[in-house]
Design brief:
This is NAD dependent epimerase/dehydratase. Keywords: Membrane, Transmembrane, Transmembrane helix. InterPro entries: P-loop_NTPase (IPR027417), Sulfotransfer_4 (IPR040632). Pfam families: Sulfotransfer_4. The chain is mostly helical and about 300 residues long. It has a single domain (about 5-305), classed as 3-Layer(aba) Sandwich (Rossmann fold), CATH 3.40.50. The chain has helices at about 10-20, 45-55, 65-70, 75-90, 95-100, 110-115, 125-130, 130-135, 150-165, 170-175, 180-195, 205-225, 240-245, 265-305; strands at about 35-40, 60-65, 120, 140-145, 230-235. A 5-stranded parallel β-sheet has the order 2-3-1-4-5, with helices on both faces. The chain is globular, with a radius of gyration of 21 Å.
């Protein structure tokens, strides 16, 4: 399940994306309300709990990494692959001017094509494109959601992100089902693989090897980019009060959500099981159809081809 990150701009991947696993591009969103909150902390830093909290505070819609693969088809994974390729590979094949520029700029208009219906964003999109979003939306407030215990965060990432990367059922489904291909492609080959610096393509080993220093470096980058009056460094253990004070909202009369636990019944496990079930079912359906076509082809050949 190791893919070569250095070759992600190779013609072979473009061929798979545009022909073998092609899906319609998502409809372009149009921004009707300004982007208000960017939650740019690393994954496994209460991202889904924070999404639910922001929805409770009226920030509708708050975008989460699950939206990349759970939105109504056509899923927007193709759009995020395009932006990831622009950031890390200079815009894609043939974009030599951008490749040589030594810089990457993603405009608010480009983000809005995927996030135009959102007023807040958290998880994968926000952490992987943190610097670009902070520049693109200069009026938005920035929340650096963190885990105070770095060792606990690292173990959480291994139990979830690495676990998914080592899932044979998901990987096999990605070979047989277009939606599963794009879900694997956007996360395991692009977003998390590149975020965790996997030059050899082994995203799981990259998290184990690099996770802690990347976490520290990412947080230091955010602190250096954002002026103090625009930034809140926050942990889920702090609950509603600092978050509401920073956003100018009244504290809700409800417990702070804790949505993304790892264990049975937790948000992460439920989401993972639901996604895997859908993708495996799609792959099995396609496998059965291919088998039927093969049997029919053999029958026709035996009847008429000899």
């Amino acid at each position: 399940m190791i893919s070569s990150i250095s070759s992600m701009n190779h013609w072979w991947w473009h061929f798979l994306e545009n022909h073998v696993y092609r899906i319609p591009p998502p409809p372009k969103r149009v921004r009707t309300k300004p982007m208000q909150v960017l939650c740019v902390g690393p994954p496994r830093s209460a991202t889904e709990s924070l999404q639910q909290a922001l929805l409770t505070l009226g920030y509708d819609h708050t975008y989460h990494g699950w939206d990349i693969v759970y939105e109504e088809p056509p899923i927007p994974a193709t759009g995020w692959v395009r932006l990831a390729r622009k950031k890390w590979y200079g815009g894609g094949r043939g974009s030599r001017a951008e490749e040589k520029s030594g810089d990457c700029s993603i405009s608010a208009e480009e983000f809005d094509e995927l996030l135009g219906h959102c007023v807040a964003v958290t998880d994968a999109a926000a952490s992987c494109f943190a610097a670009e979003m902070i520049r693109a939306y200069p009026e938005a407030k920035v929340v650096l959601n963190v885990r105070r215990d770095l060792d606990a965060w690292h173990q959480s990432a291994i139990k979830t992100l690495v676990h998914v990367n080592e899932s044979w059922s998901f990987w096999i489904a990605s070979l047989l089902d277009r939606e599963a291909f794009w879900a694997w492609h956007v996360y395991e080959r692009f977003l998390w693989a590149l975020f965790f610096r996997a030059p050899d393509g082994d995203m799981a080993r990259a998290i184990e090897r690099n996770g802690k220093w990347i976490y520290r470096e990412h947080c230091d980058m955010i602190r250096g980019m954002v002026p103090p009056e625009r930034l809140l460094e926050w942990s889920v253990d702090e609950g509603w009060e600092p978050l509401c004070k920073f956003l100018g909202k009244k504290v809700p009369d409800a417990p702070f959500p804790h949505a993304n636990a790892i264990g049975p019944g937790g948000g992460w496990k439920a989401r993972e099981d639901m996604a895997t079930k859908r993708w495996v079912e799609g792959a099995l359906t396609n496998l059965i159809l291919m088998g039927l076509l093969f049997v029919c082809g053999c029958a026709v050949w035996m009847r008429w081809g000899r």
